[in-house]
Structures are given as structure tokens and as C-alpha cells.
Amino acid sequence: MKLVFERSVPGRNTAYLPKLDVPEITLNAELREKKLNLPELPEVEVDRHYTELSKQTRGVNGGIYPLGSCTMKYNPAVNEKTAALPGFTDVHPLQPVETVQGALEVFRETERLLTKITGMDAFSLQPAAGAHGEFTGLLLIKAYHLSRGDQARTKIIVPDSAHGTNPASAAMAGFEVVNIASDDHGYVDLDALRAAVGPDTAGLMLTNPNTVGLFDPHILEITGIVHEAGGLCYYDGANLNAVMGIARPGDMGFDVMHINLHKTFSTPHGGGGPGSGPCGCKAFLADFLPGLRVKEADGTGLVEGKAASTIGNMRSFAGNFSVIVKALTYIYVLGKEGIPATAKNAVLNANYMMEQLKDLYPMAFEGPCMHEFVMTLEKMKEETHVSALDIAKALLDYGIHPPTMYFPLIVHEALMVEPTETESKETLDEAVQVLRQIYADALAAPEAMHEKPLTTPVRRLDEVGAARNPVVRYRFAD
Ligand SMILES: *Cc1c(COP(=O)(O)O)cnc(C)c1O
To answer: For residue range 320-377, what is the model confidence (pLDDT) as tens digits?
Structure first.
């Protein structure tokens, strides 16, 4: 059958509207003057459209997805089952509070478990993504300094290995970004940090394990230096999968953080979202938290409230509720033993792959690694002109999603691999064998590598064009 994207035919709409069960009224205002420009097609065509799209894309349901820093683990089906319970799907955020006690209990329980896992004292579940959580946390830091009448703290320190969202969030929150260098091991350079802090330091943003997959052994010293200077420490929780149940940001000296529920706690992301980036903090910052706070009323159930000096709302209502239900399900299923076991397996899988590859692929830093490792294709590029991008694209022909490319920025020709705990030894072995084969192919016929992939529905995409000039709507309204 011919593959078509545009299947709409005017007038071919099939809508199954239920019989009206409320009194009919006539609306005068707010009526559209023009018909909505929506596709018109019967259910079977809708089904085929999405089935076809799903076959043309690459997801974790199709194979290993070792996209470093993104924790593309398998999302268990039971998460979807609980999130689809009618008691969860049929509630509305404007319902009277006594009719949504179950939903409030989900918020309260999720907050309780996240504080236990991280060593924080309170969480807002409102932020819709990791970057949104960062922005929230930075606003808390700002509110804290201002509440003490300290207006001089205008700078946020960010290491040069940081995820791009860190400096972006700091700038959006109105701070000046101060970059500090990493040392030869990929850790924070302590002397550079000491030189950077001062009475203008609002805080430091850091992820640990860091973006090269290493746990910084000086973490207590780092947070100590910042605190001594009067700044606060922000933990980018995107790498929590490596340490959950084993080490807690709250014990490392961090004051405020976010968690990517869509990474660590197995809710869909990367086109399958929406996400959720709860922002947690120590008790002294809790009065600034945004959005809904669930509290116990005296024996009558749960009530909603706002934190005393709240920074306001970060988005509408309480957050991406169904995502929170999925994450809570995941935490319940794993339990107290499963959470650290998951972290250990994630670390084991990454080290296993790294060991199997390091004789061919130079590692950017000496191991052992945590949940991910970074290879550098710099030498390959110099000698053969085959780039990290070429290698990554070649993986697609073998049904493997490419690793993260050109990140972190401090590593040249970087490929960052995060296999996650949900891959079996057989799958890891296969991925290793494919990477070794590609390496051999690159040496044997370097020119051909620039043409890869050969077997995908579209070949090399204009990624710069797509980022600069995104077309995110299928049709523009008339
Ligand atoms: C993914 C990621 C973020 C941002 O999270 P989003 O949910 O994509 O906004 C921040 N820092 C690190 C290290 C990440 O990997």
C-alpha cells in the first residue's frame, strides 16, 4: 500500500457524539465564525495514520535507546493501567476539594516519597519539565535572598559541563551566569570555584553524578564552599537514576533541586510526554514553593492551600497529574529494595558496556563510570574524517537509537551512552557488537559513513534547519 501522510477528505468525518443528556441552550457569544480547519477522516484512517507513524519512528519499545542524560528506560505498562483508572481520568481540577480526596492523596504521597528519596523536606509537583523545575528552583533561591534583604546576590555559578538548560534557566530567572571550568577528571575545579564565589553569589547549579557520568568525590567540599560564601546549592536531578536509594542530594548539601519524573521514574518522554519536573527544597525554602500544597485538615480529609510566601503559580492547576500517578505507581512497584537495585543495575549496565568498548572507542574520562559514559571520537575524526555524528547515524541502520551527540560540550566529538537498567545482557552484547562492527566499517570505508543511515524512512535530516525554523503544526489555521 502506498504510504500517505495526508489522508483527510472533506466531509469524511465520523464523530460518535453521545446523546445530549443536559438541557440544550443557545450560545450567542463565543461562537466560532469559521469552521475549524481540522482533518476529516474515519476512525480506521486515524488508526492507520498513527500506526504508520509509530512504525517510522524509533522508541524504547522497538529497541535499546542509549540516549545519554535522558534515561530512556522502559516504561512499565502497569503505570499506564493505574493512570487510566476512571477515578483518576474523570476528575477535574475545579471540582470541590471533598470530591477529589483521592487525587490529593496521590499528590501528598508522591511528595512524601520524593522527599524520602532525595533528602529534601518539601516538593512542588507543579513544574512540567526538568528545565521548568530548574526555573522554579532558581526563583526560590531569588525569593530567599530577597526575603533577607540581600539584593547583592545576582550570580549563579554553573560548571562548563552543565546541561544547556542550567545557564538558560538561570538567565531566565534574571541571574548572571558565571561559568567555571572542570578539572582533568571532569570534576568541579575547586580552586576555580573558590575564586568564583563571593557576596554576589546567589547559588551554584550542579548535577551529581555529573554530565560525564562521574560522581564528584568532593561534593561536600563543593557545597560547603558555596554555603560559606552565603550562596545556595541547586541539584539538577536529571541523573538521579544512578544514585536513588543510595545517596541523597539533601545529604550532599543541596538546598533545592528538581527531579525529572519522565527520566528517573519511568514516565514517557521524548515525544511521548508530557513530562513532570517536581521541584524540591529544604524546609527553610518551603514557604516559597509554588502552586497547590496539600495539607491535612483536622480529621476531615485533605485540603488545598498555598505556601505562605509562595512565588506564585508556575503553570495552571496542580501539575501533569497523570504523569505523577505513573511515577507514584513506579515507586510503589519498586519499593524500598527495588529503588537502589534499579540504580545499581543502571550503573552495572553502563560499566559493562564501557568495558566491552574501551579498547576500540576511547573514553573521555577514566572509569568506573556511574549510569553513563562518554566516548570521544576525536582521533577517528582526525584520521578518517568520520565524525561522532556519522557513527551515531550508522546505528540507526541496525535498529539502535543513537546515543547523545556532542554533549557535554567539554568533550570533543562526544558520544554519551546511557543503556539504563531495563536492558538485558543480551541486548547490551548486541549493541556492543554493532558498535564494534561500525568502528570496523568506518576504518574500512570512511567515505560511506557520511551517507548513513541508508534504511530509515528519511535519511539525514537538516537538524539545524529544523531547530531554527521548526514547523510544529500540521496545518496553519486560515
Ligand atoms: C534532561 C536534562 C535536563 C532538562 O530536563 P527536561 O525535562 O528535558 O527539561 C536538565 N539537566 C540534565 C542533566 C538533563 O539531562
So the answer is: 999 999 999 999 999 999 999 999 999 999 999 999 999 999 999 988 999 999 999 9
Residue 206 CB–ligand 1 contact under 6 Å? no
Tell me which residue has its CA closest to atom 2 in ligand 1: 238
- Whether 216 lines ligand 1, by a CB cut-off of 6 Å, is no
Tell the burial category of 397 from Cβ atoms under 10 Å away from its Cβ (0-12, 13-18, 19+): middle
pTM score, two decimals? 0.92
Report the residue among 69, 71, 265 best suited for mutation to probe ligand 1: largest number of ligand atoms under 8 A from its CB.
Answer: 69
* DSSP per position, 240-278: GGGTTTT--GGGTT-SEEE--HHHHT----SSS------
Which residue type is seen at 138?
A: L
Q: Is the CB of 211 under 6 A from ligand 1?
A: yes
Domains and CATH numbers, the chain: 77-333 (3.40.640.10)
91-121 as b/e: b if 16+ CB within 10 A: eeeeeeeeebeebbebbbebbebbbebbbbe
Residues 6+ apart with CB under 8 A from 469: none
Cα of 238 to ligand 1 centre, how many Å? 6
Sheet of strand 232-236, all strands in order from the earlier edge strand to the far edge = 122-124, 279-281, 256-258, 232-236, 201-206, 155-159, 176-180
Omega within 30 of 0 (cis) for the link into 453: yes
Phi/psi of residue 129, each to 5°?
Answer: -165, 170
Backbone φ and ψ for 143, nearest 5 degrees, come out as -60, -40
Query: pLDDT tens digit string along 111-134?
Result: 999 999 999 999 999 999 999 999
What is the 165 CA–ligand 1 centroid distance (Å)? 7
Atom of ligand 1 nearest to the CA of 71: 15
CA dihedral 356, 241, 217, 406 (to 10 degrees): 60
d(CA 277, CA 377): 33
Go through 423-432 and write b for each residue having 16 or more CB atoms within 10 A of its CB, e for each that does not: beeeebebbb
User: Which atom of ligand 1 lies at the shortest distance from residue 162's CA?
Assistant: 13
Residue 281 pairs with which residues in a beta bridge?
122, 256
Phi, psi angle pair for 370, to nearest 5°: -95, -120
Expressed in angstroms and rounded, the spacing between residue 258 Cα and the centre of ligand 1 is 10
Enter the C-alpha cell of residue 194.
Answer: 573558590
Grid cell locating 396: 540507526
Dist CA 111 CA 57 (whole Å): 35
